[in-house]
Specification:
The chain is mostly helical. It has one domain. It has ten helices and two strands, in the order H-H-E-E-H-H-H-H-H-H-H-H. It has helices at about 1-30, 35-55, 65-85, 90-95, 105-135, 145-170, 175-190, 205, 210-225, 235-260, and strands at about 60, 65. It has a two-stranded antiparallel sheet with strand order 1-2. The chain is globular.
């Protein structure tokens, strides 16, 4: 039993690793810095945004230092939007690989989403470490809460990515709708506001958006009890489980559609 489970894990890990290497080589090439663009791309995005905000906004936002506020909001938003964006054409770009019986749609989405999550995570660590070293931000107050919020965000992002990518594979028009939805998420994701800034009667309404809970939890780990934060871990887990299951169903339907065509 243990041997079979071990072989099963090794098989699928090998497939996903190979797909990730193929995706990186296809997307970034083998010249110049190559695979390092997985980190360089989100770094360039983030540094540009941080510089712009520091020029046009005050050093403090509602009594909170601007730089840690931006870091804890922008990188989660980057993870969400990049993952959804690359999921939209995942099937169309890799449909030829499905002729290999051992490769499934789930393998393709796991490989692509893991690349995006890993790239944004590494960029987040690099920017955070650099800002701590030069004194722009303080060290996070609770690393476990920060880790927990980030892991929940990654799981939720994966589930939503499966849904968006699976539906886009079934209905071609959803690719354009999905990209539009990802733009709408910018102001409502929690990246550029904190729940305690919202009037009391509307706070629970804001927390109905699952990504807001993740960002609030990340900020709780960063600021500690010095800034009020609101989030519901169980609610995010429910969303993550349900979106993952719906995404798997969508992938199954999409696979049958591809076989028919």
């Amino acid at each position: 039993m243990l041997s079979s489970a071990r072989n099963y894990i090794i098989k699928h890990t090998t497939i996903i690793s190979a797909l990730m290497l193929r995706e990186l080589a296809t997307r970034y090439g083998r010249n110049n810095i190559g695979f390092l663009w997985i980190i360089g791309e989100p770094l360039i995005f983030s540094v540009g945004v941080f510089m712009l905000w520091s020029l046009i906004r005050a050093p403090y936002e509602h009594g909170i230092k601007l730089m840690p506020f931006l870091i804890t909001g922008y990188f989660p938003l980057l993870m969400i939007r990049h993952s959804i964006g690359h999921a939209m054409n995942c099937v169309a770009a890799n449909a030829n690989l499905l002729y290999h019986r051992s490769i499934t749609l789930l393998h393709l989405f796991v490989a692509r989403t893991f690349i995006e999550i890993a790239g944004v995570t590494l960029a987040f660590i690099i920017v955070l470490a650099g800002c701590i070293i030069i004194g722009l931000v303080d060290f996070p107050k609770s690393m476990m809460t920060l880790y927990g919020g980030w892991c929940l965000l990654a799981w939720l992002t994966f589930g939503i990515t499966l849904v968006f990518g699976g539906v886009a594979a079934i209905y071609d028009i959803f690719e354009k709708i999905g990209n539009l939805i990802s733009y709408v998420m910018i102001p409502i994701s929690g990246a550029y506001f904190m729940v305690f800034w919202i009037p009391y009667q509307y706070r629970e309404l804001a927390l109905k958006i699952p990504f807001v809970n993740c960002v609030e939890m990340i900020r709780r780990g960063f600021f500690g009890e010095f800034e009020p934060t609101y989030y519901h871990v169980g609610y995010v887990i429910e969303w993550s489980v349900i979106s993952t299951l719906i995404g798997l169903i969508a992938l199954k339907i999409a696979r049958e559609k591809i076989e028919v065509e």
